Amino acid sequence: MNPEYMEYAPTATAQVLTVVVVTSILTQIIVKI
Fold this sequence. Notes:
Blueprint: H1 3-32
């Protein structure tokens, strides 16, 4: 594993988690409307 990937992986994971959370929140808002 090269160091660059090890540094990038956590950031990519955090971005994916953020997108999932935002999507689920928006879905709940749309469903409530």
